[in-house]
Amino acid sequence: MVLFKVVIRTLFFYFFITISYRLMGKREVGQLGVIDLIVSILIAELVAISIENHSEPIYLTIVPIVVLVLLEILLAYISIKSRSLRIILEGKPSLIISNGKINYHEMVKQRYTLDDLLISLRQKEIRDITEVEFAFLEPNGKLSIFKYKPFKIKSTYPLPIILDGKIDEESLKNIKKDKAWINNIMDNNNVLLEEVFYAFYKSKKLYFIKKGGS
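^ thats the sequence. predicted structure below, dont judge the formating
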C-alpha cells in the first residue's frame, strides 16, 4: 500500500510541477528543458529525503526514481510520434520580433518583459532593437536573434507552416493566411496534409517536404 502511494504521489507531482512550470512561462525555465528540470529537482529531493530519513527502506527512493526515468523515456518516445504532446511538454518558439517590430501580445502571453528582451539583446552585443529583424523566444528560454542584413535589406524568414502533418495556426496568423489558402495550394499540387513532413513559407511561396524525403 505504501509503495502504491509513493508511485501515485510521484506521478502526481511530476505532472503537477510540469503544468506549473508551463503556466509560469518560458522565461522561468532557464537553460534546461522543462522535463529535464523537473526530473532533476524531484530526483534530488527524493535522494535528500532518503538520506535524512535513513530509517525508511531504500526501495521507497529507488522506485520513484525508476518511475520518473521510465516515464521520461516513454514521454520522449511518444512526443517523437506526437507533435501535440511535444508542444504541451516542451512548448514551441514564440515570435517576439518580426520585421523589426516587437510583438507585444506574444510578450505578454509568455510573461516576457521588455527588460528580459533588452538583457537578451545586450548578451548578444546588440545595442539597439532596430538592429533586429527577427527574434524567437525558444522553449528553453533563450532568445534566437536574426539581425538585419547590410543597409537593412529585408529578408524572409522561412516560417514553419506544417509540421508532421499538423498545421501551425500561429504561423498562419503571422503571414495573414488561413487554412483554405493551404488546402487550395495542396489541392493544386496533389498533396495530402498527412503526407507532409514539413512545409515552410518563404518569399511568398509555400514549400513542401513529404514524409520519406520526396
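The mean pLDDT is 78.
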